[in-house]
Design goal:
Blueprint: E1 3-4, H1 15-22, H2 35-47, E2 52-56, H3 59-70, E3 76-80, H4 84-87, H5 92-97, E4 100-104, H6 113-119, E5 131-137, H7 150-162, E6 166-171, H8 174-181, H9 185-191, E7 194-198, E8 209-213, H10 215-227, H11 236-248, H12 253-267, E9 273-276, E10 283-288, H13 294-303, E11 306-307, E12 309-312, E13 315-319, H14 326-338
Helix pairs in contact: 1-11, 2-11, 3-10, 6-7, 12-14
Length: 339
């Protein structure tokens, strides 16, 4: 029994999802003639109370399209120092959009309105790049799956409105936040100019993200996606997986959250664990006590058929997901208890 807790991206479609994909009605999406893609885009947009959506092969392309949409070369966006758009998108902010990043030292990957206001460059001071966009991530990846409070996001939105800034949400794991905080997705739609949501992490689809926004923004995003090489043909087979995931795999995220917290509870009893980030969703980040090496723990766990990942600096990450079943969870808890 191999147990992979490296990421929630490692899941494989279930038999039922594959059958749903197999039976999808498809067309040429480059000509906007794929009915299943159109259904997915419409359904996700309605779920968040936004005007339109656009299907993407990856969350990175969706985020990069949003940045290109909201900025001009030479401008600057504001984000937390842990932001996915900065750390894990291949330098696309600068390569694709010619934009620099002003990074904020937030709390577990989350920034607040006061920090955003302090980071905005004076638009009349032409020696500095013009601030044009704020990007936040919910849940935060490097922040250990932390979730924003809606009121905090509304305060940032006020700062954006007062300074003529656009506001983008990298919502790769927004589904986890919605379940953990019992939040209304339409409240997010009312706050942000654009939102990217991922279907291939907690929801278990094999691929795909959707960018949400106004009809005008999504019309412009269609051209940007084309420039980035994201035009797809009979992609309804993949969009069908997203539709199945939306219908069957959102509420069950609570199981992933419970299991992550139970693993954290066992780790908290171990003298070789120095600290554990607060666990709100399905991501658990912990650091080892002085004298212990992360690569040695990873190797010992591999010998027990359990895979986790290192984040460097003696920090490790565990991510629970759809394919991590209860029998696996029991084994992991027993194994860690004996270490």
């Amino acid at each position: 029994m191999e147990i992979n807790l490296i990421s929630d991206t490692i899941t494989k479609p279930t038999y039922e999802m594959l059958q749903y994909m197999f039976n999808a009605q498809v067309g040429d999406d480059v000509y906007k003639q794929d009915p299943t893609v159109i259904e997915l885009e419409t359904r996700v947009a309605e779920f968040f109370g936004m005007e339109a959506g656009l299907f993407f092969p990856s969350g990175t392309m969706a985020n990069q399209t949003a940045i290109k949409l909201h900025t001009q070369p030479g401008e600057q966006l504001i984000a937390d120092k842990y932001a996915h758009v900065y750390h894990y998108e291949g330098g696309g902010v600068s390569f694709n959009s010619g934009v620099s990043c002003c990074l904020i030292d937030g709390d577990r990957g989350m920034i607040n309105a006061a920090q955003v206001a302090a980071a905005i460059n004076d638009p009349e001071f032409y020696h500095s790049p013009l601030t044009s966009l704020v990007c936040v991530e919910n849940t935060t990846n490097k922040g250990g799956g932390a979730c924003y409070e809606l009121d905090d996001l509304r305060e940032i939105k006020k700062v954006c409105d007062a300074n003529n800034l656009k506001f983008h949400l990298d919502g790769a794991r927004i589904w986890n936040a919605l379940v953990a905080k019992r939040q209304n997705p339409k409240e997010f739609g009312a706050i942000f100019d654009t939102i990217s949501v991922c279907l291939s992490k907690g929801l278990g689809a094999p691929i795909g993200s959707v960018l949400l926004g106004s009809k005008a923004d999504i019309h412009r995003a269609l051209r940007i996606r084309k420039i980035f090489g994201g035009g797809m043909r009979q992609v309804g087979y993949l969009a069908a997986a997203g539709l199945y995931a939306l219908a069957h795999n959102i509420e069950r995220l609570a199981e992933d959250h419970r299991r992550a917290k139970e693993i954290a509870a066992v780790l908290a009893t171990k003298p070789w664990v120095a600290a554990i980030e607060p666990v709100e969703t399905n991501i658990l980040i912990f650091s080892l006590a002085e004298g212990y090496k992360d690569h040695l723990l990873i190797e010992k766990l591999k010998q027990k058929n359990i895979s986790i990942s290192s984040m460097g600096h003696n920090k490790l990450r565990i991510v629970t997901h759809l394919d991590y079943r209860e029998v696996m969870h029991t084994y992991v808890l027993e194994t860690l208890s004996k270490f």
